[in-house]
Amino acid sequence: MRSKHLINIDDFVTDLCRFEKGLITRENVLDFCASVQITDSSLDPYVYFDEKFYTRNLIFRDDLFEVMTICWQPGQKTAVHTHNGQICWMIPQWGNLGVVDYKWLGCDHPENQNVVGLDCLAGSDHTQLEVVREIEACAGGPVLTADKLQTIHRLFNLSETRERAVSIHIYSRPIDSCVAFDMENNRCYRRQLGYFSKYGETVAQEEPVASASSFVQITR
Question: Who contacts 162 (Cβ-Cβ below 8 Å, separation ≥6)?
């Protein structure tokens, strides 16, 4: 395993933005993320935990990149969701996360797909998904990615009782909404995405932060 260069989050963002001068690909950003270790101390302003839901904490955003921490209490998890067709990278910072990837098999509203600027309008009551793999993402381990070929998954803190987790997420382009799946009722819907904090400051939460108990707050 190659050694990683220790870097603070501000320098990480500066180096990441250099990719904007050329073609942004899954591979070149993946190689960069895999070559560095972001210091915990530099992330302190962007680490917030909530007892009810995991939190999305914005570090940086422009037209091409969005960078945030996701902070997980034990047992917290996302709904099954898409990434709106964008490229995403996840760096496990500390703790252990589980990732379950799904394959879309079909629905009763296929005409809602292939919408300009969105992966799907959603709105199906007969969505069919199949689990294709389950992964454990550990601090110091491989950087995980999602792209147009694999965009549906669920993330969760593997620790049910004790250990918190923090992960760093990079999206290109930024994503303001996604498709979320109600697995019990085989339905899907579009979900607007928000932040618990922006640039180190908590923000007023719009209601509802999450929907009914059968759903959970969405992230990617």
Answer: 74
